[in-house]
Structures
1.
Amino acid sequence: MARIAYNHTDAQAFAATRHLGDASSWRAAIVEHFDPKPGSRLLDLGAGTGSWSRTFTEWFPGVEVVAVEPSAAMRDLSVFQPILAGDAAAIPLPDSSVDAVWISTVIHHVPDLAAAAAELRRVLRPGAVVLIRSAFAGRPEGITQFRYFTEAVRVLDTYPSVADIEEAFAGFRTVKLSKVPQHTASSLQEIVATLRREAHTPLQLITDEEYATGLERLRAAAETTTGPVIDHLDLLVMRTDPAGSPPPAAG
Ligand SMILES: C[S@@+](CC[C@H](N)C(=O)[O-])C[C@H]1O[C@@H](n2cnc3c(N)ncnc32)[C@H](O)[C@@H]1O
């Protein structure tokens, strides 16, 4: 079960405000690790309202993009179809059929990371890549939301850390951890005008008073700050072992 409901209200807020207008910086970060050869298969796990899947079909012609999402409300509003019902522990794909998996701002909702890792080991081909885009516990730096809603860092610190994920993902090796800059909005004023609390897990999980205080800080900053808002989310890249490697030792 996810940390928030992902009901119709959340899905509508997410679709309205969380699709990046300019995702281009992520393209280079992805192709550094994934060769988008025609015929390869890219899984968008926890695809939400489908914006990344739609972008991938534009960026990578010939790549088969498979979107999987557990929330019916998110699937109903998806800009990418088809989008399959499923979750990190039950992926509706055959064994050894996926070349890369994109897991964007999802990993903190996954209740059992080891079960997810086992399911990914099943569906991924040897040598396939796992691309986890997220904010991780202990790494709020470079994320605008946490600068103004400082109490939300308390929520972030309940998310999995990079070490938690590495421990759960036995049989995968970390290739790279980096902060990827992205153009989130043209200004803080735009964020003030469009912010929807329901679209952000950390903002749903602080108190109403904390949210109101954060909003005041954000509004005050927006009066004096100009220029685009650039956020830096983490990208954790892991790989399955190539064909022929022994399976991880038990225990
Ligand atoms: C913040 S949204 C991100 C959506 C999309 N990946 C994106 O970046 O636009 C988190 C998504 O994770 C999904 N989710 C929750 N629990 C999940 C699980 N156990 N396995 C896969 N996805 C899950 C939610 O339903 C929701 O659509």
2.
Amino acid sequence: MEKIKQAYNTEDFREKGHEMVDFIADFLQDSLEEKNKVIQYKKPENQLEYWKNYNKNGIDFLKDVTENSIHLHNPKYIGHQVSAIAPFSAITSMLTSTLNNGMAIYEMGSTATALEKIIAEKFAEKLNFSKNADGFLTSGGTLASLTALLAARQEKSEKDVWKNGNSENYAIMVSEQAHYCIDRAARIMGLGEQGIIKIPSNEKFEMDISCLENEFQKAQEKNLKVIAIVGSACSTSTGSYDDLHAISTFAKEKNIWFHIDGAHGGAVVFSEKYKHLLDGVEKADSVIIDLHKMMMTPALATIVMFKNKKHSYQTFHQKAQYLWEKHEDEDWFNLAKRTFECTKYMMSVKFMSIVQEYGYEVFEEFIDKTHDTTLEFAKLIEKHPNFELPVTPKSNILCFKLISDLDIQEQNNIHSKIRQKLIENGDFYIVQTTLNGKVYLRLTLMNPFTELKHLEILLEDILKLENTFKTEKAH
Ligand SMILES: Cc1ncc(COP(=O)(O)O)c(C=O)c1O
């Protein structure tokens, strides 16, 4: 029992906890003030080697984890869509990890379950859904969309798929610009490649609505039964918002389910200034929104909302009678009935701790600031002699590239090399994406402290790197 006694020693916890909170507070301050690099880049094999040969423990281990991780609170982190969390929620995470309530049934997470219901009611209000809406939290946008699409299939198929399996060739329509999680969901549902109908996008990288009828007809000729259409709000690569009104009209006409992937952009319903981007959202049958993207919450935490609460019980028809006894509709508090997870993290507490501390207004400030700066930066690029945009951004996601007379292949190589070098230097973290065969550098402003001045420095760094690569090539 010697090791067990050590592992549960509360005085040891107190001492290390205090030291760690001080360390994290300093780390956050240094990150916000850009005193450290955004990333200490190591090649995968070197990272593995480092940890294989590692032998420190306790706080030293945690400090070295920090040192060797990417730092989202540095304003020069402008890469993937994961939030620089509100620090208070880290304190919450310490508590929820300690409580470790499993959430599957009411008694195993009573507070977190009640908070989850309150959050769903708030989102229903913000989405302009009626009182008949309901939703719950799940582990990430990928799982959330799969959950919603399973409910869509139960609703739109003639037979009980949960019981009998796929009895027809079901299909889902989605823009070619959508996040790959929709394609993955379709395949997990056994629909195969034919079951995912990719709709071409227009010059703004939005779903081309004029193609819908034709694609639907083609599907019918192939004997496919379209069950759902998915709108992106917004898309991952360019942050483009599909025309939700038009998609909804189409869905209604064809009697198919309308799902919205709002993993990134759904949060704009909290902003007076930007909520118009989600016009038409109230017409969807289901919507998902990641709280760990634009809502300052530690990963993972995603809300999946259903316009009709009945549908939220429809995903899994499997019964586990020992867990719940009452009629389905009364069972909002036994969450595992509706979620993929059995044991689930107390994600509602992480989110609500931010709301209790700062109010819902904090999200509006966050959204406005990150969007405003991105749109200002877009104007700067539009006027810049060396850079161009593929499309004027609407959100806090922006793609751009160098104007160049090199052939596309060479331009692509240079852009990839520039991005790699930026990461290896560790001064910035940005990503890249390919649009119409061209590599673009891609930014997402996930940190409210990223200012125009940081982005101007980024442009200077990129121009210097371009010069270096061109000179190297000339020699
Ligand atoms: C539009 C969109 N949908 C879904 C996802 C996947 O969400 P998650 O990483 O929470 O599974 C992303 C992630 O970037 C996204 O941008």
